[in-house]
Design goal:
This protein is mostly helical. It has helices at 2-36, 44-48, 85-103, 106-109, 118-121, 125-150, 157-178, 181-216, 223-247, 253-256, 261-283, 290-306, 325-335, 361-366, 368-376, 390-397, and strands at 51-59, 62-69. The protein contains 16 helices and 2 strands. The longest helix is centred in the middle third of the chain and has 36 residues, at 181-216.
């Protein structure tokens, strides 16, 4: 029953997280599009009222006229729309999911026993959880300090963008050295998502509140509040596509189980940012296909790097050229079936992962290629909790029906 309750809680949290993320990202992308699509008002009276830009649009059978004021409008309505709860809900639900799925079983999901850094490979469960929290906090602090020190007045945002890009390469490398592959990809995405939500909480909304307060008092708002909010909002829009990709990466072991997973991850991050740049410029009326072409090229490089080598591994010389089910089935029963069974005996599992049960000879044969792939990559067993040996991995690699 406990495992079922955890599964159901995971199911509902994931639903909430996806709903909140869609709402937040959708609204964010819309406002970036709106901001970049603004045109100088044609009517002199609109310009005299302080209208900085306007955009006419048609949608859903109606016409919309959006206007942006550079200064306070003559009258600021009480029912002013604010955009922040979607961002907070996305982060809170995502963090709750991570706690439920990863931090609740850190030795299983977070610790990388094959890490080249001994202290990381030998972390206990509570130590892995502490390092995880410090990793998230440290990512935000580093990013925030880069923004404050490199471009505090938003005059060196180009240099800042390069610094943030370098930071993400470093984060990608560190995450794959410290944590297990799947957790590393998620945590890198979580560092970016934390920065996005923290931007809203610490900079965008407080700055907007100060601007509104000044306008209502008949005072001129501090222009830095608007510029700083725009800076952090721009960063958020470039983080969006990479974060979404990293959050769904746990379904694809070829990426995070590779020895150069940090390179693959970095290429995906830059590809997402380049593709997003194309749409940002498109909304401003500039069509520059070089950006999606460059993004696609980076994805192609990631595909090439992650591609499995042809010809097997060197350890296969120690086992027969080909082995059959008689040799493989005992290994699967002792190393895999604790989780992959119609009624798992491994604590924390209410059903077999991905619905794959290996109770019978036929079920095992149906998944032969997938079993060989995830075992050869080292992804399975998760954290090698059942102690599969290299000889057993070689045996499975040479398995032929």
């Amino acid at each position: 029953m406990q495992a079922y309750l955890l599964d159901f809680g995971n199911f509902m949290l994931r639903w909430l997280h996806v709903i909140a993320a869609i709402a937040w990202i959708g609204e964010s992308i819309y406002f970036v599009m709106l901001d970049n699509g603004l045109r100088t008002p044609r009517a002199a009276e609109e310009r005299d009222k302080g209208v900085f830009g306007e955009m006419w649009a048609v949608h859903g059978g109606g016409f919309y006229h959006n206007q942006k004021y550079a200064t306070a409008p003559a009258k600021l309505p009480e029912d002013l729309h604010w955009s922040f709860w979607k961002a907070y809900t996305t982060w809170l639900s995502g963090f709750a999911l991570f706690v439920l799925l990863y931090m609740a079983s850190p030795s299983f999901y977070l610790v990388n026993p094959n890490a080249s850094w001994g202290w990381a490979a030998n972390m206990s469960g509570w130590q892995a959880n502490v390092v995880t929290l410090l990793f998230l906090l440290g990512g935000w602090v580093l990013y925030n300090e880069l923004c404050k020190r490199i471009s505090p007045n938003m005059t060196r945002d180009g240099v800042l963008s390069v610094a943030v890009a370098v930071m993400m390469v470093v984060v990608s490398y560190l995450s794959t050295q410290i944590f297990s592959g799947r957790a590393a990809f998620l945590l890198t995405g979580a560092v970016m998502a934390t920065a996005m939500s923290a931007n809203v909480f610490f900079w965008i909304i407080p700055g907007q509140r100060r601007m509104v307060k000044a306008m209502k008092a008949g005072e001129a708002p501090n222009p830095l509040d608007g510029k700083r909010g725009k800076q952090r909002s721009v960063h958020n829009t470039y983080f969006t596509l990479p974060v979404v990709l990293l959050m769904i990466s746990n379904h694809y072991s070829f990426a995070y189980s590779h020895e150069h997973a940090w390179v693959v991850m970095s290429l995906f991050i830059f590809a997402g940012a380049l593709i997003r740049q194309f749409f940002v410029l498109m909304h401003a009326g500039k069509i520059q296909p070089a950006y999606p072409v460059a993004g696609t090229a980076l994805i192609a490089v990631a595909f090439w790097i992650a591609m499995p080598s042809v010809g097997g591994n060197a350890g296969q010389a120690q086992v027969p050229v080909s082995v059959g089910m008689a040799e493989v089935q005992p290994i699967i029963e002792s190393r895999c079936v604790a989780c992959h069974a119609s009624e798992p005996t491994q604590q924390g599992f209410n059903a077999p992962p991905a619905g794959l049960a290996y109770d019978t000879h036929e079920q095992i044969l149906q998944q032969r290629h997938k079993i060989q792939e995830v075992v050869a990559s080292g992804y399975m067993p998760l954290g090698n909790i059942t102690g599969m040996t290299e000889e057993e991995r070689d045996t499975i690699a040479t398995w032929s029906p």
